[in-house]
What we know:
By secondary structure, the chain is mainly alpha-helical. It has helices at 3-28, 35-40, 47-58, 61-73, 80-83, 85-102, 108-115, 118-152, 154-158, 162-215, 220-229, 253-264, 266-273, 278-299, 301-310, 320-328, 334-373, 379-400, 411-419, 423-435, 441-461, 470-491, 514-531, 545-576.
Amino acid sequence: MNDAGLIFTGASCVFFMALVGWISWLKTRGTAASKDGYFLAGRGLGATFIAGSLLLTNLSAEQLIGLNGSAYGYNMSSMGWEVTAAIATIAMALVFLPKYLAGAFTTLPGFLNDRFDSTVRRMSVVLFMLGYGLVTIPSVLYSGSVAVLLLFDIPGLTGLDYFTSLVVTVIAIGLTGSVYAIFGGLRAVAVSDTLNGAGLLIIGILVPVFGLIALGDGDFGAGLAQLGGEHTEKLNAIGDADAPTPFGTLFSGMVIANLFYWCTNQYVIQRTLGAQSLAEGQKGVLFSGFFKILVPFMMMIPGVIAFHLYGPGLGTIDEAYPRLIRDVLPVYLSGFFLAVLLGAVFSSFNSLLNSAATLFSLDVYAPAKEGRSGGAVSDAELVRVAKIASLVIALFSFAAAPMLYFAKDGLWQIIRIFTGFYNIPTVVIVIVGLFTARVPALGAKLVIVFHVVTYGLLRFVFADDVTLHFLHQYAILFVIEVGIMLTCGWLRPREEAWKFTRDEKVDLTPWPFARPLAVTLASCVAATYLLFSPLGVASETGPGALFAALLAAIIAGNMALWALSLRRTGTKARLAT
């Protein structure tokens, strides 16, 4: 890229980022003064903002680089992390969200305090804060900075060495992302996420289109024919035991990991807790599930295209997407792409920052202050403390993120290891807590201690001896830990059964189309796997009659379901009038 191209890229990137910032400011000014305003967007988020924020919170540079790299180096099996997440969004919309909104929860540890006791609350906060502060927030900053370095050759442009360029990029990205979280609260995060999400969808569609045009020497149709006619094994999502994501793991630990992420992870569910009604929350969550279905097409097909263009000769699989972007994306879109990439990084970073500050303010500072003074902490003080906490956490992450460069096992290994310390016990405690009444706080405490010790032994002491895939280990630990809690409830039940306390601050009328849309979403998951399988495009001869028959059955079943649902909804509406 010549000097004129670089100037245009930088100027257009700044323009698009400034536009997002200006619109976010217009939509959020004056809304972050109160506790609910800052932490939950005033409980006024609609479906569009919830879906957009969930999308950008979940998708960032590590997906753009990592998923395309996995498709380039292996096959489509890693789409399991994305596509099957749609099933977890169904669970969130139909099972968890009605409970969360009925109890007007602000944080997950706050619920655990009500269900169990203050010790369980503190233990869960420690798990979340350590996970966010030591691993998740620094890793988001690090991976985003690496993506920018790879895509735009920052060391070559600035003359700085790689590590210095990394530090400068981390600080620049972190400072910009912090502005939204510290000064605007959750609503500013949600609005900016939605705008950047629209940009991500545009880029996600354009990159494979330009890639196929390049593959076909200027002919999109020829490129598509080559993609589906050569190296079709790359399009197979049914992973064997040696694949990055074996197919069997989708039915064991993958289910648990997705339930944690989409149903109990504070920094993800916080925007759903700010829904203006149950119906809007359900719409937003389910719509985000449909976006997850698009991920293989936007973030893995380009990796397969890169294999067709460059062969297996790239230095590392993570070079596939940056190389494709540099070669096929027109200069006039480079600034827009950079703005979208940075927006995706900002989204995950500022969402984590906002949630970490929320946990500290509401589950650490407020209980401690109220315990000493005996009085409630004012909204203004909580917001002030949250801003200070956000700043401290951000500064810490600026120092920690570049250190991941020296991690000998790599970024993905670190994330995978340390997330496992808190994801399984959290989802176990929440599920058992929500759907039982006699299990005591002792069960939750035992599960947390058991999991941290057992998982630590599996990962650091017996890692060479235990060869079972880590997702299968997740499933086994989940079953054992549910058993521990239920056994405690049987041997030492609570003297008084826990009763769910309703505190309805928003309309809890369910969306009438939530269930049929959930069935359609689950059908899309099945159809996507059918498409990227040996019965579909992964076949050397292309999709056959069986593929067509199964797909037709899925479509016909959904058409019948929607016809019945619309008829029932119309009947209820007539009866109501």
